[in-house]
Design a protein that fits this description.
It is a single chain. The protein has helices spanning 20-30, 36-52, 56-70, 75-89, 95-106, 119-128, 158-171, 188-191, 204-213, 232-239, 258-276; strands at residues 6-10, 110-118, 133-137, 139-142, 145-150, 179-182, 196-200, 217-218, 244-246, 253-255. α9 links the parallel β7 and β8. The longest helix has 19 residues, at 258-276. The strands form three sheets. The protein has a six-stranded parallel β-sheet, with helices on both faces. It has a two-stranded antiparallel sheet with strand order 4-5. Strands 9-10 form a two-stranded antiparallel sheet. The chain has a domain at 6-92 and 109-179: Rossmann fold. The protein has eleven helices and ten strands. The chain has 277 residues and is an alpha/beta fold.
Length: 277
């Protein structure tokens, strides 16, 4: 049964630490789909991504790597590889992110992972986490074999927003009641679609936009000793007991929902705990 709202979670550096593509690359190497030299480049790229995020150009290169890695591969062989990838991803789901998933589940919302990673991997990961579904990059399959071409828009940037629009049209969600969690400015198209965007471990560009628009900002990056930051507008609204906080993309003020208050309360508690360390 479809609910009236949904929560969309980016995968890399939001739900989990680092890049899921690295684990896909390892599995592809084990299956003989990717040479050792390429795996070494993947490892360097994964480390860079974990520390600094990814640019549009690097994401396009990742898209090309994924498509090239599966080109000519029978779909059933790829399907056999997916459970091993998911098994490696599950321990890397952040406990803080799991708490947010649990919060939305308790509220009765549908929950989706949305990622540039292959939809086969994202879908199985969502199933393992008992979520509503996974939205990812779809590679074309002809006669049971991957062609190395896309079957749908690359699930990145505006492509993510297009995937969500289609889902919303199919499921009848009220976008004004939906949530989106992401770490990168490349996710602004999907975050701008929903009524409740939340920046998680944001890059500088997204953090700047989030502060200007009054979006909640939470950070639990372990490389920074799990310091937690909350957007100044959202934090001020909560600590002052105000009933609303400014949203730069809306006129005037909007009421803080119970879940937004819980997000801010949770983030402030983590910030106080980090300060005591």
């Amino acid at each position: 049964m479809t609910t009236g709202s949904a929560a969309f979670f980016d995968l890399d550096r939001t739900l989990m630490q680092g890049s899921s593509a690295w684990y896909f690359g390892k599995a592809a190497y084990r299956e003989g789909l990717r040479p050792l030299g390429a795996l070494a480049r993947d490892a360097i790229g994964a480390l860079w991504f974990r520390l600094f995020g990814v640019s549009d150009e690097k994401s396009e290169a990742l898209r090309d790597q994924i498509l090239a890695a599966v080109a000519g591969t029978p779909a059933d062989a790829f399907a056999r590889m997916v459970p091993g990838v998911v098994e490696e991803l599950l321990p890397r789901i952040r406990p803080e992110s799991q708490a947010l998933l649990d919060m939305h589940a308790e509220a009765g919302r549908d929950i989706y992972i949305i990622s540039a990673s292959p939809v086969e991997v994202v879908g199985e990961l969502a199933k393992a986490l008992d979520l509503t579904g996974g939205l990812g990059t779809q590679s074309e399959i002809v006669d049971g074999v991957y062609t190395g071409r896309l079957a749908a828009p690359f699930c990145y940037g505006e492509g993510k927003a297009e995937v969500v629009r289609k889902l919303v049209a199919d499921r009848g969600y009220d976008l004004s009641q939906c949530y989106a969690y992401a770490d990168s400015a490349s996710d602004l198209p999907i975050m701008s679609l929903v009524g409740h965007p939340v920046a998680v471990n944001p890059d500088r560009s997204l953090e700047s936009v989030a502060h200007r628009r009054g979006w909640p900002v939470v950070e639990f990056n372990r490389e920074r000793k799990q310091l937690v930051k909350v957007g100044a507008v959202a934090a001020g609204a909560f600590t002052s007991g105000a009933v609303g906080y400014g949203l730069g993309r809306r006129a005037g003020y909007a009421a803080v929902t119970q879940d937004e208050e819980r997000i801010v309360r949770w983030a402030l508690a983590r910030r106080r705990a980090a300060a005591r360390r």
